[in-house]
């Protein structure tokens, strides 16, 4: 399983037209991206993983990340085994505890003791028959406690909406050998005004999710930065500008200890496949 280089994190690959998603994944592989990452916010995520694996030959397909409240360990392990048997060692299971506002929206009060919930889910993966090995999974770890769990019970971490400084802290916490695989949101644009028009409201949605907000505070941002979506916060979380600006941010993650960076292209239409932007990034990053 090649988890070096640069990958693509994409909502359309998960929820867009399945035929175009398969075509796009095949093109991303030919362009040289080493992995595609898809979210899990409901629905048959393993079906989507299977379609992307079937459309490609070498590329890793990863969940970024599986919402553990929406799946049982037994079903997850069975899907992992089936997909691995059909497509080889190309499916990476990213697992996360999600966020209270999202989980409690359908069942108020369900989201509690997330660390215990993660431990129980991993226990279930370990004891399933067949099991999901630790080297086949990564965790959506942001804070110190989850980073500690990942160091002991997973192959590494896939943090979302983080900075190179978080990558440095994750590497320090996990040591050498573990995989650090951050997501990096990017906007290919001509200037700050265009970047803000595309990214500000998108970023503001995440402010309502305490796991992200608390992580940004740990990284040194102020409550005022978060409340106003300050330029400082925006520029730290979203790389924007031309291809060179994006490449610099990816290089900063690598210098901080990342093994692989998953770039998520933000565009005016978040539901469209940004295939031209992916081609431009491939030429600059790969």
Topology:
Elements: E1 6-9, H1 12-15, H2 18-31, E2 35-38, H3 45-55, E3 60-63, E4 66-67, H4 73-87, E5 91-96, H5 100-106, H6 114-127, E6 137-139, H7 144-153, E7 156-157, H8 164-174, E8 179-180, E9 183-188, H9 192-206, H10 210-218, H11 223-228, H12 231-237, E10 238-241, H13 243-256, E11 261-265, H14 275-285
Parallel strand pairs: 1-2, 1-11, 2-3, 3-5, 4-5, 5-6, 6-7, 7-8, 9-10, 9-11
Helix pairs in contact: 2-3, 3-4, 4-6, 8-13, 13-14
Would you kindly provide a brief summary of this structure?
By secondary structure, the chain is of the alpha/beta class.
Count of DSSP strands: 11
Low-confidence stretches: none
In one word, what is the shape? globular
Task: Summarize the main sheet.
Answer: 11 strands, parallel
How many angstroms does the end-to-end distance come to? 18 Å
Q: Overall pLDDT, averaged?
A: 95
- What helical percentage do the residues reach? 40-55%
Q: How many helix segments?
A: 14
**What sequence of helices (H) and strands (E) makes up the elements?**
EHHEHEEHEHHEHEHEEHHHHEHEH
Which class of secondary structure composition applies to the elements? alpha/beta
If you had to describe this structure to a student in words, what would you say it looks like?
The chain is of the alpha/beta class and 286 residues long. Helices cover 52% and strands 15% of the residues. It has 14 helices and 11 strands. Helix 13 (243-256) packs across helix 14 (275-285). The chain starts with 5 loop residues before the first strand and ends with a helix.
């Amino acid at each position: 399983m090649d988890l070096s280089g640069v990958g693509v994190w994409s909502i359309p690959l998960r929820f867009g037209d399945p035929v175009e998603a398969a075509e796009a994944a095949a093109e991303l592989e030919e362009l040289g991206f080493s992995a595609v990452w898809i979210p899990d916010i409901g629905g048959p995520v393993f079906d989507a993983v299977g379609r992307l694996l079937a459309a490609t030959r070498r590329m890793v397909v990863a969940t970024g990340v599986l919402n553990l409240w929406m799946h049982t360990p037994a079903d997850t392990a069975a899907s992992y085994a089936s997909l691995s048997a059909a497509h080889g060692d190309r499916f990476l299971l990213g697992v996360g505890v999600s966020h209270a506002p999202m989980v409690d929206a359908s069942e108020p009060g369900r989201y509690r003791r997330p660390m215990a919930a993660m431990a129980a889910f991993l226990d279930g993966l370990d004891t399933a028959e067949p099991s999901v090995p630790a080297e086949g999974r990564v965790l959506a770890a942001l804070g110190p406690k989850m980073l500690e769990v990942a160091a002991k019970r997973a192959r590494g971490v896939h943090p979302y909406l983080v900075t190179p400084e978080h990558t440095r802290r994750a590497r320090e916490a996990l040591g050498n050998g573990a995989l650090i695989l951050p997501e990096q949101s990017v906007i290919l644009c001509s200037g700050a005004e265009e970047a803000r028009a595309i990214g500000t409201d998108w970023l503001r949605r995440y402010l309502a999710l305490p796991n992200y907000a608390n992580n940004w505070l740990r990284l040194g941002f102020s409550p005022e930065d978060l409340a106003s979506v300050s330029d400082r916060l925006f520029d730290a979380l979203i790389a924007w500008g031309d291809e060179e600006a994006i490449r610099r941010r990816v290089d900063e993650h690598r210098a901080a200890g990342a093994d692989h960076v998953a770039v998520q292209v933000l565009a005016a239409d978040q539901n469209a496949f940004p295939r031209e932007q992916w081609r431009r990034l491939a030429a600059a990053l790969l």
